[in-house]
Recover the amino acids of this structure.
């Protein structure tokens, strides 16, 4: 048996996580379509929805206005991120019982390598069952678990029996048999644009990839070769090592267009604080900070800066602020920050030509060693007591400004944001 086949990897995915937490805490919501994001009549998108809402065609990332047309009788509400983060913390504690090789994809999703854990806790199947049972018993929530020989097979397995399911794909042959008749979109890294390019050469199903492997590789280059390997079940990625080709972002849509530059910068400051916490929790340092702005009429721009790797909120903010100072100052509908180009080595030098670091001035203000120690202490306190346990004076001032200036609805949520870990699935573009 090959090294790849010997691995035992679990993919755990909570079922409609935000909605499940809300239904757990308010039983009156059970059986009703529940949409979490913004309220009808507001700008914004669906952060998540329960399975009842999905029966009406509502989906995550859909504009709330469109969701309301599909499901006008649904229950709409804002997300309560503190509540979800608390639940996530307990979920992650359960996972950590069985292995320390974990790759957190989001608050409610992650990969666990339990290959060595079988000597302590029994079979991988038994570990999967225990995780499901404990998640229900200790948190009143359900999850779907997939067991695979690789990360992609575990991910596919967890999606087979949702919600509250368990499935396993233990060999490349079993994976090929399962996915051969399905759309190419089921293959990891094949997004909408790649699928369109494949369709133009007559490749619509995974079986077509097998039949036209050379053509796929010729048309899509290295990405095409990787797609062929993944479709055949070849995936040697190690859990916990994936840091490149990934991004984490948070954005804020305003109910009325904003022209107050100081207010917008305060929103950026709060977003930077959240992103700093997210990447510190993953043990990552970001070299690239990207600013996203959407103007009225849905015209969007992005501006990016690559510099020294950091996971410090103030560094991220200063980078985003510098980018913001360079753009048009028309009324703004949406603003956000994405961090990417990750490394787990903060000393690693960026590749290629970059401009001088925006963080040099910040580094000069605080001794490096003290800043690192402070960051470790803050992260530990945030993980134990919540992200808002400690804030800098500038962050407190920003929070107060955002709360005072925002609408009544925005005061209740301050910066109603969400973070996602996204694969750069269209890397060839």
């Amino acid at each position: 048996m090959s090294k790849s086949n010997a691995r035992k990897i679990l993919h755990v995915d909570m079922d409609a996580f935000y909605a499940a937490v809300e239904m757990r805490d308010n039983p009156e919501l059970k059986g009703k379509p529940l949409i979490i994001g913004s309220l009808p009549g507001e700008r914004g998108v669906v952060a998540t929805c329960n399975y009842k809402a999905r029966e009406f065609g509502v989906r995550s990332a859909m504009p709330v206005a469109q969701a309301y047309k599909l499901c006008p009788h649904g229950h709409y509400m804002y997300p309560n991120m503190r509540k979800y983060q608390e639940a996530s913390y307990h979920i992650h504690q359960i996972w950590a019982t069985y292995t320390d090789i974990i790759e957190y994809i989001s608050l409610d999703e992650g990969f666990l390598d339990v290959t060595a854990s079988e000597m302590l806790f029994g079979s991988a199947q038994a570990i999967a069952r225990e995780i499901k049972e404990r998640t229900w018993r200790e948190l009143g929530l359900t999850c779907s678990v997939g067991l695979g020989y690789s990360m992609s097979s575990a991910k596919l397995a967890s999606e087979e029996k949702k919600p509250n399911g368990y499935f396993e794909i233990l060999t490349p042959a079993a994976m090929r048999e399962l996915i051969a008749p399905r759309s190419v979109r089921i293959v990891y890294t094949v997004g909408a644009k790649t699928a369109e390019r494949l369709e133009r050469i007559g490749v619509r199903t995974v079986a077509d990839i097998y039949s036209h492997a050379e053509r796929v590789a010729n048309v899509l280059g290295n990405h095409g070769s990787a797609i062929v390997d993944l479709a055949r079940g070849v995936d040697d990625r190690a859990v916990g090592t994936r840091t490149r080709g990934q991004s984490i972002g948070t954005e804020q849509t305003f109910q009325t267009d904003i022209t107050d530059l100081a207010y917008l910068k305060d929103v950026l400051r709060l977003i930077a604080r959240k992103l700093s916490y997210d990447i510190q929790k993953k043990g990552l340092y970001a070299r690239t900070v990207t600013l996203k702005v959407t103007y009225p009429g849905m015209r969007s721009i992005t501006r990016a800066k690559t510099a020294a790797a950091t996971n410090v909120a103030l560094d991220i903010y200063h980078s985003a602020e510098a980018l913001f100072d360079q753009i048009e100052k028309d009324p703004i509908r949406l603003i956000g920050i994405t961090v990417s180009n990750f490394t787990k080595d903060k000393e690693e030098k960026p590749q290629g030509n970059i401009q001088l670091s925006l963080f040099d001035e910040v580094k000069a203000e605080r001794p490096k060693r003290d800043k690192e120690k402070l960051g470790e202490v803050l992260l530990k306190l945030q993980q134990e007591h919540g992200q808002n346990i400690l804030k800098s004076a500038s962050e407190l001032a920003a929070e107060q400004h955002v709360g005072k200036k925002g609408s009544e609805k925005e005061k209740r949520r301050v910066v109603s944001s969400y973070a996602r870990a996204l694969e750069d699935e269209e890397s060839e573009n």
